[in-house]
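## Example pair
The file below holds two records. Each record gives the amino-acid sequence first, followed by its structure token line.
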Amino acid sequence: MAWLHCPDARGRERGERSGPRRPRRRARPVSALLLALLLPACASAPPIERPAARAAQAEFAVGRDTFAFPNLVRANTPGRPHDFANYCIIMARGASQFFRFARFAPDESPRPDADYTRLTGEVLAITPWEAPWPAERRVVIPGYADLHAFSRGRESAIKAAFGNQWPGVFAFRNWRVVWSQSGAHQAGLAHELVEEVGSGRPVPLFITSFPVPDYVNHVVLVYDYRPSAGVVEFLAYDPNDPDNPLSLHFDPVSRAFWIEAVPYGPAGRIRAFRLFGSPLL
């Protein structure tokens, strides 16, 4: 979701797929470097540890636990289709909900589209900040092995369950776009992200550079992290680019997040805040 759009320096229009990027290595266990990066900025926070049970937990994976279709980015180009734009909030939240509350059953017989629309609606109706459900309680999605295969095969049925995008765009949680988060807030958020994704709970995150020219307003789903070149790199599912993880970087010196250039926005400093972490935020 970004409301100012133009072709980037490479001539691609924002929202177009750039094709698969080089696969990223799997995140390694937390190291002394990661602790050294985060703890000075969060001196009052408890030490950060990877939970011992992490290896036994299912890990979120782009290309398996993500929607196969992209959120389209609106552009000032005549004739460009805008039939599925501004759904990044619903898609990031939805991927998290499927990961927490759904179970895929590829050996069961496929169902009609109407059943899949209903089942998708059931998953999306579950309170998104709940802890992951046990297997026996989860909503069963028959006929498919994972969300990526499901959304590739039944795209129209899933989109029918999404409904209108505008309630998500103008949701009350989004008022923080105009708020200037402090360095202390951003450092605390980085610490929260490490704890949450380290425990196997992906986090919907709003990233924004509003109101600078050519600003970014977008929602992604952070699912892992690693130390990288003196900063902490968070990996996120990007609804605008379902084939490639998005890298968000946190610098403990400036206590700020930044991103590299993406097809829908320039490189630079951004502000970030959590979505769907509680009934109010």
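Second record, same layout:
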Amino acid sequence: MELLTSPGSDDLSALLGRINVRSVVYCLSDLSAPWGFRVDGSATAKFHLVLDGQATLTLDDPGATGVTLAAGELVLLPHGSGHLMRDRGDSPARPLDHILVEGSPDQAGHLAFGGGGPCTSLLCGGFEHVADGFRRAFPPASG
């Protein structure tokens, strides 16, 4: 197959091209409002890609304010920061591990969860084999 246009270059693509990092998809989720989940901090770099709808991300830092993410936006948490993902900033959030146990994603890793309102689709995952150089390339997140 011949490409009609060459892919654009950006700083993140260049950085990822220079380091050995492998992404792992945890689940593809269809979340109906109201919904919310909490992810504990860990050494694993994480990401969330909003495929459809919108989500609010709030870091587990004192005084952190939520950031609204729209369809097509990606959030990268290279330091594995604990955080909340919700349909809006005041929706209740449960630990993601509990939702995954109760919701039982299918064999393809697809999860449906929420209260029956407007839907948001998220692709959530992490990065394995992340070198310290990768983390140093990004400043620690702050609220």
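Notes on the second record: The mean pLDDT is 82. Helices lie at 11-18, 96-103, 132-136.
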